[in-house]
């Protein structure tokens, strides 16, 4: 399993897909800071941290290409048979796909955040209001967000195995994370307020809770628990599905 993860990482590190995607977003974040600097805004590093708290949910889109390059592409190209023929068990195959996507996602996020916050500190200044508490608060939110992103990767990996077409997979993934909450909210309004219980345990709801100005420890803990539950459930579901899936 470890060798397969290394092979997957080597394969993706030596492709343009991962680097063009990561570097492309990093450059866009740099351009944003340059524009803020050139237009003489009063934005400082402290404000960038506050802005990031509101955009943590965008990580759900950022991890989508990681799932695509590790799982969906092999489904589309029908190369999973080669992996299975080498003797790796299907359970280890699923775990390897999730772990690989997580590692790629974390590396990508680290690069993007380093460029964004680093260029922001240099161009816009740290600001008098910046404190270690602001940094600690952001780190806590980011760590919990990583758990939720891993949960999204687990859900996405299941969808990537289930839907053989990568385009269909991408649309279904987007629908799951950015339409279901609205649908459940509508059902809560029109049918029964009991649907609120369902809405409260959605991954997207946890990101909304993390974006508030002052987040409590209970909120962080609950979001982490919800994320871990999703990871466990969808990893098991993917294993059960792949175990019975016909690999062509």
UniProtKB/TrEMBL annotation:
**Which UniProt keywords are present, listed alphabetically?**
Membrane, Transmembrane, Transmembrane helix
Q: Which Pfam families match?
A: ABC2_membrane_4 (PF12730)
Taxonomically, which superkingdom?
A: Bacteria
What sections of the protein cross the membrane? 18-39, 45-67, 98-126, 138-163, 170-191, 220-242
**Name recorded for this polypeptide:** ABC transporter permease
Q: Which organism is it from?
A: Clostridium aestuarii
Q: What is the lineage of its organism?
A: Bacteria, Bacillati, Bacillota, Clostridia, Eubacteriales
């Amino acid at each position: 399993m470890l060798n397969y993860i290394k092979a997957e990482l080597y394969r993706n590190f030596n492709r343009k897909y991962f680097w063009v995607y990561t570097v492309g977003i990093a450059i866009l974040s740099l351009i944003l800071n340059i524009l803020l600097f050139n237009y003489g805004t009063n934005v400082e590093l402290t404000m960038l941290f506050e802005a990031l708290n509101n955009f943590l949910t965008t990580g759900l889109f950022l991890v989508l290409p990681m799932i695509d390059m590790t799982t969906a592409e092999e489904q589309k190209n029908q190369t999973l048979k080669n992996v299975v023929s080498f003797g790796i068990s299907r359970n280890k195959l699923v775990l390897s796909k999730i772990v690989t996507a997580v590692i790629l996602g974390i590396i990508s996020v680290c690069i993007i955040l380093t460029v964004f916050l680093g260029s922001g500190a240099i161009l816009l200044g740290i600001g008098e209001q910046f404190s270690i508490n602001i940094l600690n608060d952001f780190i806590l939110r980011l760590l919990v967000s990583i758990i939720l992103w891993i949960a999204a990767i687990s859900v996405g990996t299941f969808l990537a195995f289930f839907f053989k077409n990568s385009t269909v997979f991408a649309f279904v993934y987007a629908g799951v994370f950015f339409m279901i909450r609205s649908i459940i909210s509508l059902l809560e309004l029109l049918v029964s307020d009991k649907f609120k219980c369902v809405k409260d345990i959605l991954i997207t709801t946890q990101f909304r809770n993390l974006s508030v100005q002052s987040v409590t420890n209970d909120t962080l803990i609950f979001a982490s628990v919800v994320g871990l539950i999703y990871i466990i459930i969808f990893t098991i579901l993917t294993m059960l599905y792949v175990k019975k899936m016909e690999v062509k």
